[in-house]
Design a protein that fits this description.
- The chain is an alpha/beta fold.
- It contains 9 helices and 11 strands.
Length: 313
């Protein structure tokens, strides 16, 4: 864990695919449920709405980034680095440059350095935030824009054994603390836990890895798990996320599950989406601790934030 004293994240924002549809409209939904012998109970699973886009990954990233810059009242020229996260970058290396150029043009960022994050799957955003926080804490950059953007490659991939996937993107600024900056969250600490033997186990997530990450996080901060006001986790099926997080030691009241049905699983963007919506609902307490967390097979990543006094709208 890198030293991150004085680092904040500012103005998190997100965009979802422009077309919303009911889970029953997902291609192959009924056949999938029947084949898996899943109980067809939408309330139990957290099935609800998913969001589909006609845009490509670059356009989604630009939309989210522009919303963050406007919300933070930061001009593009004030951003001096971009961390771009996605579960799937173009398979052809020759297309990588055009993707980066398209995002930089759309955001009017000029020739700022770009760091790409992809191998941590639906923990990409939190890994990207760790990278950005280390950059800022080291004095390498002042204002780092972090964006994650994803869309399903084919409609048949929108339903899986663990989640209903939505297209979308989320972003925020990672900066040094600045007096008077609105809607900011102090970076308290971050932690991760990894089991290389489990990285290839498909859809399996581990409560044991969450416990290890928690131990590291709380040992560094000196606070206990009971001090977490809200756990902002991935929007996977309701019984799965509830079981795994409670097994890891969280109280069910700390979980934030309302977006599982409303938003679906938006790849790595879920923790930030859930934080944004919690704030919009007026449920972020000044000085409260909020834990962004993502679990994938063999990996748990978490970032602990403290809300500033002016965080609620």
């Amino acid at each position: 864990m890198a030293e991150t004293t004085g680092v904040v994240i500012r103005a998190p924002r997100y965009v979802l695919g422009e077309s919303a549809m009911k889970h029953t409209e997902i291609e192959g939904f009924t056949d999938f449920v029947d084949q898996r012998r899943m109980v067809p109970d939408a309330q139990m699973w957290g099935w609800g709405t998913v969001h589909r886009t006609a845009l490509d990954t670059a356009a989604l990233a630009v939309r989210a980034g522009l919303q963050t810059l406007r919300a933070a009242a930061v001009e593009p020229g004030e951003v001096d680095a971009l961390v771009l996260c996605s579960t799937t970058f173009p398979s052809e290396v020759s297309a990588h440059g055009e993707l980066i150029a398209s995002v930089l043009r759309g955001l009017e960022l000029g020739a700022v350095p770009v760091t790409g994050v992809t191998l941590n799957r639906c923990a990409n955003l939190l890994t990207g935030l760790q990278v950005a926080a280390a950059m800022v804490a080291a004095g390498r950059h002042r204002n780092v824009l972090v964006i994650t953007a994803d869309r399903v490659a084919a409609e048949s991939e929108r339903i899986t054994d663990f989640a209903l996937f939505s297209d979308g993107a989320a972003g925020c600024l990672v900066t040094q603390r600045s007096d008077g900056a609105s809607e900011s969250y102090e970076w308290v600490a971050d932690a991760c836990a990894q089991d290389p033997a489990a990285l290839g186990r498909g859809n399996e997530i581990s409560a044991d890895l969450t416990r290890v990450a928690n131990q590291r996080l709380f040992a560094e901060t000196g606070i206990g798990i009971e001090a977490i006001d809200g756990l902002l986790h991935n929007n996977i099926y309701l019984p799965v996320v509830t079981m795994k997080e409670v097994q890891a030691g969280f109280d069910q009241s700390q979980l934030d599950t309302s977006n599982i049905a409303r938003v679906g699983h938006c790849f790595a963007a879920d923790p930030l989406i859930n934080l944004v919506d919690r704030r919009s609902a007026g449920s972020v307490r000044a000085g409260g601790h909020y834990l962004l967390a993502s679990s994938v097979s063999g990996l748990r990543v978490c970032v602990l934030l403290r809300a500033d006094a002016d965080t609620n709208p």
